[in-house]
Amino acid sequence: MLVRPWELGPATTSLRRVYDVALLVAACVRSGTRVDLAWLVSRDGPAVDPSEALALTPGGGRNGHVWGGAADDQVAELAPAVGGGRLLALDVGEYEAALAGQAATGAGRALALPADALPRDLWDRLVAREPICLVTEVDADGLVRGTRLVEADEIEAEEAEVVAAWAAGRSTAAVTRGRVITVLRPVPTLVAAGPGPVGDAVARIADVLGWRVHRAPDPASAIPLVVGLTVLDSLVVTGHDDEVAGRILEAGLASRVGYVGVVAPRARQEARLVWLTDRNIDGLERIHGPAGLDIGARTPGEVAAAVVAEAIAVHRGDVQVIA
Question: How much is the pTM?
Answer without folding.
Answer: 0.75
